Amino acid sequence: MLVYPSAIDLPSRTLRYLTGQLAARRREIGTRWRRLAAGRQALLVLAHLRCGDTYARLAAGFGIGIATVYRYIREAVDLLSALAPTLAEAMDTARKKAFVILDGTLLPIDRIAADTPYYSGKHKRHGMNVQVLTDPFGRLLWASPALPGSTHDLTAARRHGIVNALAAEGLKCWADKAYQGAGHPVRVPFRGRRLKRWRRRHNTTHAKIRCVGEQAMAILKGWRLLRKPRCSTTRITDIVKTVFVLHQAST
Asked: Hey, what CATH topology would domain 12-81 get?
């Protein structure tokens, strides 16, 4: 087998953070011995999440079995996803901001035509819908659980309780046209082609504010595993939360 050096485009503090969490978990459950030290396990998990390396490649590269790779990754994802902030905690942070930006994204998945709930008519492909809240500078505040791709962004926002939470906190929120009808807390651009000049100017200003939130989507998609998850749809929520926690630890 051929082996070549590689790199992960993450700061070393991300590796240190994950290593510390895994080491604490091993002490908690009383682990005596494992094939890989906590630092090597953390490196394996980051290679999977950031680079999208498969279980088979990781098993060959780290000299362990595929089943062991699966257990190591599963352990880290379960551990970190539990540390992700809830919507209520995100609202506490957002209360200190001038406003927040709400946007949705589709994480593509492999599905057949019969899997209708996962098919997004907007994107013309199967996937999972994830809602994201960011601050005025595009920094991630919260990522929602994943819903089937056929779910409309406004429906997803209501189902997660985002609209009610924003209204309860009196927070201003900028969003795109998909959230038309969300109510007073959510500000959306005017719809239509033949708009008056002042409405066109309003839409231009609105777009400049809202486009900052696209940085959050780029951050999520920077983790290659989220560009097209190959795992079960029931695991995507935990993976999104794990990526969120690791990103917060690296900033």
From this structure: Arc Repressor Mutant, subunit A (1.10.10)
